[in-house]
Amino acid sequence: YTTGRIGHHRIVMTSICPVDQVTAATVASRLSSNFPGLKVVFLVGLCGGVPTDPGGTDMLFGDIIIGKSAVQHDFGRVYPDGFSGKTGVEDNPGRQGHRIRSFVAKLESMDDLIESSIDCHLKTLLPRAGRWKARYPDLHEGPFPTSDYGPQNYDVEDCPFASECDSHPASTHCEQLRCKLQDIMSQEQFENQLRRHPIIHFGTIASGDVRIQHANDRNRLHNVADIKGFDVEASAVWEYVPCIPIKGVCHYVDSPRTEHRETYAAITATACAQAIME
């Protein structure tokens, strides 16, 4: 653990490594035992997002998701016709206490103020991260998929480059297969969106050791349970400590992941945590 202060708050920091449900639960449990006076735990890190939320707001790389609730998407049973997740109240992490829920509601009412503060922190944090090449992902790192795009390498029969690949296309990166994304945001649309600062989205985060890799699965969970973000560890930490996930969006679950996007999203999530603690 690393202890210290941010502003007038006494803090303790730790990390989850490797990132999986068991490790996350173990770290959270020990954190709670060793520091029984904890008021709130900010789970700061990366997640996948959905290209567009129900309100029509585009979710871009570097945007932040603050979790109002957490569910485990890979908890259920496998039947002959497929997987059936458990969605009952008793099968998912419970609600946080009234104090945490009220605090998140207050944050949601102050999102414009927090976003302005995030911009100020980014001006300080981004130059310090120069050696990691942290910057906003640009059009040259695209293309950027729309909400109905799915990895082309999952349908082997339809992939024109599958025969050129030594491994199974489903386990091979699109860049190796030279796949082309057909449905992407227009360059004009994306350039216009580049001019805005990172924004905050509030909603449910779905977690699980089984990683979702296809747009159909992402959209199904998003439509059924209004899932905004996808990660591995949030639901496990949620069970043990008063937790508020703060996650930077670095991919759309089915889109390629790059070092630039991950680093930039990690920094925006950190800036958000700093802004909240001010």
From TrEMBL:
GO molecular function, one term: catalytic activity
One GO biological process term: nucleoside metabolic process
UniProt xrefs under InterPro entries: NLR-like, Nucleoside_phosphorylase_sf
PANTHER family, alphabetized: AAA+ ATPASE DOMAIN-CONTAINING PROTEIN-RELATED, ATP/GTP-BINDING PROTEIN-RELATED
Protein name (record): Purine and uridine phosphorylase
Protein source organism: Aspergillus homomorphus (strain CBS 101889)
Organism classification: Eukaryota, Fungi, Dikarya, Ascomycota, Pezizomycotina
